[in-house]
Amino acid sequence: MGTGNDHPTGGLELGYARVSTTKQSLTRQLDALAAVGIGDERIYVDKKTGATIDRDGLNQLLAYARSGDTIVVHTLDRIGRNLREVLNLVHELAEKEIGVRSLADPLPINTADEGMGRIAFLLLALFAEMERTFTAERAAHARAVAQAAGRQIGRPVAHPEDKIEYARLLKAQGDSLGVIAAKTGIPKTSLHRYLARPGGPA
């Protein structure tokens, strides 16, 4: 993968791939970067969970990139966890004359392109922000409707309180979890949680 070797003259295409957990695979992103001719020595990766944009692979890439280079990603969300991070980073890179190109977004993104590629990026950013706003508004409306109708907001209790109390009574009488599960219909996994908290359901 990417190294900190001397930067050759001329603009380079530098790949970046990221997954948010160690259980996810980088294969699809790496295959896409390889398909456009970016070698392993020019690809930087991050494979861990983190709440900020401070990631080792990305930091190495940003330190290596020079004016005239283009950072290539599978989709634009790989370089940031939210729209604001993406926009901030793209703006900072543009000031250094470093472009960003995505391979699989619905619109062809290339911020180094002064034409349609740049316009596509701005449109994508606009659509993403609109969707975020609409999602928040829909969630707020759903909560307001539910509250007006007197419905409970949030995760419902999985089992009725009377069954949980019955399970506690059976436990106090010395019944095994298997017997309690059979009599109450509550799975053993839930019984462990309920019976460990005598004050109420988990």
UniProtKB/TrEMBL annotation:
The active site is at S20. InterPro entries: Recombinase_CS, Resolv_N, Resolvase-like_N_sf, SSR_resolvase. Keywords: DNA integration, DNA recombination, DNA-binding. The keyword Protein biosynthesis does not apply. GO terms for molecular function: DNA binding; DNA strand exchange activity. SUPFAM superfamilies: Resolvase-like. GO terms for biological process: DNA integration. Residues 12-150 form the Resolvase/invertase-type recombinase catalytic domain. It comes from the Bacteria. Transmembrane segments: none annotated. This is Recombinase family protein. The lineage of its organism: Bacteria, Bacillati, Actinomycetota, Actinomycetes, Streptosporangiales.
